[in-house]
Amino acid sequence: MTTSEFGTDRSAAPAPRTALLRRPSALWISEFAATALLLLAMAVLFGQLSHPEGWLRLRIPSAAGRLLVDAVVSGGVVALLIASPLGRVSGAHMNPAVTVVLWVARLLPGRHVPLYVTAQLVGSVAGTVLGRLAVGAPLSHPDVDYALLSPAIPAPATFIAIGEGIATAILLVSVVRLAHRSDLARSAPVLVGAILFALIMYVGGSTGGSLNPARQFGPWLLSGADTGLWPYVTGPLAAAVVVGVGSVLLRSLARRRRHAR
Fold first, then answer.
1. CA atoms 234, 80, 42, 131: torsion sign
2. How many CB atoms lie within 10 A of CB 161?
3. pLDDT tens for residues 36-85?
4. How far apart are alpha carbons 254 and 187 in whole angstroms?
5. Which of 53, 143, 221, 224 stands 20 to 30 A from 89 (CA)?
6. Residues near 137 by Cβ (< 8 Å), separated by ≥ 6?
């Protein structure tokens, strides 16, 4: 979920820029694989965490306890994928909102946005399909619903969109900030994972804690759920635009202050 070599990535190990520029296919494959692995991990987790006969469900009867496990595993998997070789190639955004904020903040060329987003959406579907193959019929159980996220208590779609947008904005501010801090390069995966953990704990009960349109897309498509997808898309993407524009304005203001001295 960090910016790639195309976007002055300082959170991943350096890679030959010219080589990557000649190989957009490597970016697409890396981003696809990272997103697919994320969704596969979520499918396996929710198959055990939400199914009535799941191993984790039987041992963690409380909703709060299950949310804690979800947050720990989600943050941990994201951190590992960012730090993995896949992260060194594409930055392992795994999230259209991350890609959009880096583009708006002028840290990622616009020509790579469609490449990233299509890889993320296709990877989301592929990872969910792989999860169905790995978990089997339990993944389609109504309590699991292909790892589709939803609020613990039904809430209006607008409320979900606002909650997802606010939480995603906090995550994206952190991502943009880390992109400018070379001294935090080695710890960036852990920091992003920890922030994601805290945000899922904070909004998971009220929105489901997706903060990522790609996290919701594959499960929504395969489950055929009546639950609307739009709050989980518009909230994070609106946050990406706001945070990206804010980043550009703040940098411009800082430059003017330096020139005025």
1. positive
2. 21
3. 999 999 999 999 999 999 999 999 999 999 999 999 999 999 999 999 99
4. 26
5. 221
6. none
State pTM to two decimals.
0.89
Find tokens 């994320």 and name the residue.
Answer: 38
Q: Is 256 left (phi over 0), alpha (psi -120 to 50) or beta?
A: alpha
Q: Angle CA(162)–CA(207)–CA(247) in degrees, nearest 5?
A: 45
- Whole-angstrom Cα distance, residue 101 to residue 244? 5
Residues 146-176 have pLDDT tens digits of 999 999 888 999 999 999 999 999 999 999 9
Spatial CB neighbours of 167, under 8 Å, sequence gap ≥ 6: 199, 202, 203, 207, 209, 211
Domains of the chain: 5-260 (1.20.1080.10)
Q: Is the pLDDT of residue 238 over 80?
A: yes
**Which conformational region is residue 4 in: left (phi greater than 0), alpha (psi within -120 to 50 degrees), or beta?**
beta
